[in-house]
């Protein structure tokens, strides 16, 4: 679970943020702080992953708190949730490493999108193997894109979904075009199109080995079992 602290001086807004947070899977509220000083006290005592941070607060404001968090070296991420919509506040927050900036008033869907994107990025960073560019772009750049990205001609979404499910079921075991075609129930020629597509977007590696008579054997292996990139294509 991603451990969250809400920093908001307005109790009613803090309560709305708490209720919204409860609706998004994967997050656990650690505390609500009604001032920056209280937030620092919590951060010094507890393990926190993410702070939902207001800017306009009495005493130390949110940007000052964000600066203090960064200079302390704490590995805490911050999403700004504030009525501050001037370019200086936004630039300062991003310069200090805020992962997202939500302007009040906002709809639940905007906060949900920010939290979901952050959760996907956390999962991606936990991958022990290499992260490819498309997976990283999907988390950082494509937050607002529709889930169902356009597929190349000749690639059917239902067949792609079935193929991806079979690949996931094999974990990281290598497989041939013929084997996957048999699993899914389509021809080898058709399957080659799907495997080439998955290779081109970076979720499959192609391995070439040679048998005793020197004939090359082509086998594919999944580069990552996370579904972040594939969600764009599966819809």
UniProtKB/TrEMBL annotation:
- GO annotation, cellular component aspect: cytoplasm
Matching PROSITE patterns, A to Z? RESPONSE_REGULATORY
Q: Which GO terms describe its molecular function?
A: DNA binding; DNA-binding transcription factor activity; phosphorelay response regulator activity
Extract the coiled-coil ranges from the record. Answer: none
Q: Which domain of life is it from?
A: Bacteria
All residue ranges annotated as the Response regulatory domain in the record:
3-119
Modified-residue entries (4-aspartylphosphate), positions:
54
Q: Where in the cell is it found?
A: Cytoplasm
Q: Enumerate the UniProt keywords alphabetically.
A: Activator, Cytoplasm, DNA-binding, Phosphoprotein, Transcription, Transcription regulation, Two-component regulatory system
The record ties this protein, via PANTHER family, to: TRANSCRIPTIONAL REGULATORY PROTEIN DCUR-RELATED, TRANSCRIPTIONAL REGULATORY PROTEIN DPIA
List the protein's name. Transcriptional regulatory protein
Q: Which organism is it from?
A: Dendrosporobacter quercicolus
């Amino acid at each position: 679970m991603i451990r969250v602290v809400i920093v908001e001086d307005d109790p009613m807004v803090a309560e709305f943020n708490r209720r919204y947070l409860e609706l998004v899977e994967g997050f656990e509220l650690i505390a609500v702080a009604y001032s920056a000083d209280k937030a620092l006290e919590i951060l010094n005592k507890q393990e926190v992953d993410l702070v939902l941070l207001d800017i306009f607060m009495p005493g130390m404001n949110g940007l000052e708190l964000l600066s203090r968090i960064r200079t302390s070296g704490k590995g805490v991420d911050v999403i700004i949730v504030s009525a501050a919509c001037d370019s200086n506040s936004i630039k300062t927050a991003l310069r200090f490493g805020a992962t997202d900036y939500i302007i009040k008033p906002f709809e639940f869907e905007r906060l949900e999108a920010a939290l979901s994107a952050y959760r996907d990025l956390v999962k991606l960073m936990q991958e022990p193997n290499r992260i490819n560019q498309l997976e990283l772009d999907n988390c950082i750049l494509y937050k607002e894109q529709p889930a169902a990205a356009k597929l190349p001609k000749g690639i059917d979404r239902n067949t792609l979904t079935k193929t991806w499910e079979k690949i996931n079921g094999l974990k990281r075991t290598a497989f041939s075009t013929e084997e996957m075609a048999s699993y899914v129930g389509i021809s080898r020629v058709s399957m080659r199109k799907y495997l080439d597509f998955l290779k081109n977007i970076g979720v499959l590696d192609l391995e070439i080995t040679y048998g005793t008579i020197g004939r090359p054997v082509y086998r594919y292996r999944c580069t990552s079992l996370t579904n972040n990139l594939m969600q764009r294509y599966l819809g």
